[in-house]
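HUMAN: Please help interpret these C-alpha cells:
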Amino acid sequence: MNIVELNSFTHFEMKSAALREELIRKKGTAGFRLSPLLFRGYAKASWRLETTLERYTCRSYSMEDYYRVMEAVRPAVESCTERRWDLPHEYSFDESIPQSPQGYEFMVYLRHHGFPSPLLDWTRSPYVAAFFAFNSACDGDRVAIYTFVEYSDLGKAGSPEEATIVGCGPYVTTHPRHFHQQSEYTYCKKKVEGKYVYCSHEEAFARNDENQDVVNKFILPASERKAVMERLHLMNISAYSLFGSEESLLSTMAYHEIENRKL
C-alpha cells in the first residue's frame, strides 16, 4: 500500500486525475482489459480497509456459510419490504472462478441497509469518496481517501490459498442508492481446509504487488472539510442525493440551514 500525505484536497484531485490519465494511457496502448479506478473515503485515516462483516464479528465465514445467512434473513426482509429475491436453496456456485457471489443482488441490498457484509464498497467518483471522508470528519483529525485498481496488467495471478480480491462490477439490480453512489464492490477470499472463506482485503494488499490489487492511501487534514463540503454541495453531492432517505434529507437540510447558513 502506497501512503501519501497531502496538504489540500486540490492536491488529491491532481493525484487522482493523474492516476486516471495513466489508466487511460494504458488502455490506449494495451491489448487487454484494465480494471477501473475506484475510490473509498474514511473520516479517520487510522481506520483499516475492513468490511462490515469483519467489524461485526471475529468469526470466519465460508462463502456458503454466508449464503445460508442470507437465506435465513430473506423471509423477514421480504415480509417487511414486499420485495422478492431469487435465492435457490441449492448452493451451486463455483467458488474457484473470480465472479460475483451467488445471491449477489440480495447481498448488495443487505450491504446498503447496514447488514454485516463481506463486500467492501467502492465508488467510481473521487467526489463521492470525498463526501464519505469529510462529511463526519472532526477538527484536528486526518481523513483518508483510498484509490484501488484491481489489475493493471495481463489479468491476475495467485494461488487459491492466498488472499485474493475479486471485483464484482456495477451491473446489479438493487437499491437506487447503489447507482446514486456510483458503487462497485469487492470481496476477498482464500481457500482454507478445502473451503473458500471470506478474508481481509488488507491481507491481499500486504503483498504490495505492482500489477494487481494496487491501492493508494491519500491522507488529508480534516481542516479542509468546510471548503470540500461547500464544493460537493454545489455538485449536488449530499447525504440526500447519495442515500435518498428521510434521515439523509434532514441531514442535508441541517447542513444548509444550521452549519452553512450565512446570516
In short: The radius of gyration is 19 Å. The chain has a mean pLDDT of 92. The longest strand covers residues 142-151. The longest helix spans residues 9-29.
